[in-house]
Amino acid sequence: EFLEKIAMDDEGNIREEVFDENVRAFLGGDNPVNKDIAKTLHSEKSKQFAVLNNGVTIIAPEIAIQSNTKVMHLTNYQIINGCQTTNTLYEHYADLNDNVELVVKFIESQDTDVAIEIVTATNNQSAVENEAFYALREKARLIQKFFDIQRNDEAKEKLFFERRENEYRNKSIQTTKIYDIKELARCFISVFKLRPHDASRYVKKVLNTSDIVFDDKDNECAYHCAAYICYKFNTLINGRKNDAPKYNRLRWHIAMLYPWVVFGKVETPDPSSKKITAYCDKVLKTLLNEEYIENFKTCQRIIDSIEMPTDDQIKRGKYTSELKEAAEKFLNK
């Protein structure tokens, strides 16, 4: 009944939209936790499913119960905990019987912060990395919408921000065009926070301990611009063009340098400033034609102007500072 009334539409398909508030999309039947759920459903333990499974939590801004029939009416509901359970039950729908029971919690609240608190506290049936909870931030949603809008521009490469883990699974999208929370954070802190050394090593620590990414004040265009820079250099690396593979270890530093080369000076506006839109527009314009190839060559020459760093030095702020000084000298010639 839960599947038919809550999780499935009139045509018998899973309602993917009811999982938008979940930190992850369905991880698939091969996921170890989902395999265990399926195994339980097909064993003698299926009668104990309600106590062996964490259940499902549903939140809605309005819940009405008819006193005479006990029928519950939900408005704009979201399954905020139990995406894996729900989808696994759906995949084995034909094999279910009345012995399989499920604990479903209903919460009425119009406060989105309540949903975030519940997801953070309860979504631990499959191990969730702390950075995954950035997906619940409003800024992350706005950035994803910005990426969606940018894909309507025929002149631009179609990049995707995977806000929720596995969101674009089975969508036939080139993996190099998909940027998850961690990868987008790497791009952003390299270009706009001048911390390519952290992108090379400490991005998980950055996400877990600070608010330098996905800040409410940030302009969404900065995230798209940073990803676009990284994507275009990766195409050169993967295509083995212009010696780009030689600088693969320094790709985050290359990303930091690129806008400076475009503007001919070492200057990076705050991602929340009024200047940022025009700044990103100019950078993107160069990435839409062959100009970007020469710009990346210049980035490589700046790197070559000082001693090539060791793997350990790449991960240190000292090298980033030295590279910034080298860029200032090179561009002021």
Automatic annotation (TrEMBL):
Abortive phage infection protein C-terminal domain residues are 19-308
Against InterPro entries, the record matches this protein to: AIPR_C
Source domain of life: Bacteria
UniProt protein name: Abortive phage infection protein
State the organism of origin: Salmonella enterica subsp. enterica serovar Heidelberg
